């Protein structure tokens, strides 16, 4: 355990909460207690950053607004000490059509965030997308690949039923490129990003521009896209429900999973003592 904790930064889905759910009681209480002690708190997710993402603090019942937030798996960064959202390492538009060419024929949805949740370009409207629209108030437009490829983007998100994972990932793995990386972010979701982009990029940027040593930051995560977040921090904690790769780089693993208030229990036992 690190001696000094200045900030705690956590992934959202599968870490802070079950996707789309309220915070569990111990996690809510623990995060509020951290902030009362002067420890900064923020989130690091794959979602685009806009007012919807930043308003989660209020929706969850936290006693404060986020001090920072990472979105788009490291491509978006916001913090309370600087104006606006910084966008980093966009995927070049010329490769969007290439990715669509092998993903489009599959039983999946292909999604590009043209302007965060205010303009989302999609292949189709299916059950998963309808749930996202309900959760996030997304404004979506069904388009063809050539429309998605008109601008550089933070990521291409592909959603599918989890039972199709083997089929989908076989195609993804059969189409590697020096022009993009692919990462699984949630069961039934894989994303394509600019090579080298991960949550660790945004974490280092946050550390640098706010004068907070990485050694004083604690992070929580659960999936492949959290590996850099866990590895770069002074103390990285993987959820008990996390993937093996994330557990392998973490400094600790929670005793309980997200459905058992795992993050809150960990903070309660090891930090709020």
Automatic annotation (TrEMBL):
InterPro entries the record matches: HAD-like_sf (IPR036412), HAD-SF_hydro_IIB (IPR006379), HAD_sf (IPR023214)
GO molecular function terms listed in the Swiss-Prot or TrEMBL record: magnesium ion binding; phosphatase activity
Gene3D superfamilies with a match to the protein in the record: 3.30.1240.10, HAD superfamily/HAD-like
Pfam families: Hydrolase_3
Keywords of the record: Hydrolase
Cellular component, GO annotation: cytosol
PANTHER family xrefs: HAD SUPERFAMILY HYDROLASE-LIKE, TYPE 3, PHOSPHOSERINE PHOSPHATASE
Name of the molecule in the record: HAD-superfamily hydrolase, subfamily IIB
């Amino acid at each position: 355990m690190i001696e000094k904790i200045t900030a705690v930064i956590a992934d959202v889905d599968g870490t802070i909460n079950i996707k789309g759910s309220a915070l569990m009681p111990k996690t809510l209480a623990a995060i509020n207690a951290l902030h009362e002690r002067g420890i900064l708190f923020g989130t690091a997710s794959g979602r685009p950053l806009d007012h919807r993402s930043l308003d989660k603090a209020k929706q969850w019942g936290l006693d404060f607004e986020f001090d920072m937030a990472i979105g788009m798996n490291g491509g978006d960064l916001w913090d309370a000490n600087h104006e606006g959202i910084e966008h980093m390492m966009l995927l070049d538009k010329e490769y969007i059509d290439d990715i669509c060419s092998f993903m489009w024929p599959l039983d999946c949805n292909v999604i590009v965030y043209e302007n965060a949740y205010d303009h989302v370009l999609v292949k189709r409207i299916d059950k998963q997308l309808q749930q996202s629209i309900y959760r996030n108030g997304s404004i979506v437009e069904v388009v063809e690949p050539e429309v998605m490829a008109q601008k550089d983007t933070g990521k291409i998100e592909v959603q599918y039923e989890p039972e199709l994972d083997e089929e989908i990932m076989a195609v993804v793995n059969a189409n590697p490129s020096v022009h993009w990386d692919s990462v699984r972010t949630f069961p039934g979701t894989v994303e394509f990003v600019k090579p080298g982009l991960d949550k660790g990029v945004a974490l280092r940027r946050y550390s640098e521009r706010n004068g907070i040593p990485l050694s004083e930051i604690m992070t929580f995560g659960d999936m492949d896209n959290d590996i850099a977040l866990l590895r770069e921090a002074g103390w990285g904690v993987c959820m008990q429900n996390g993937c093996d790769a994330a557990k392998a780089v973490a400094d600790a693993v929670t005793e309980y999973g997200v459905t058992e208030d795992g993050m809150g229990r960990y903070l309660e036992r090891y930090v709020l003592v």
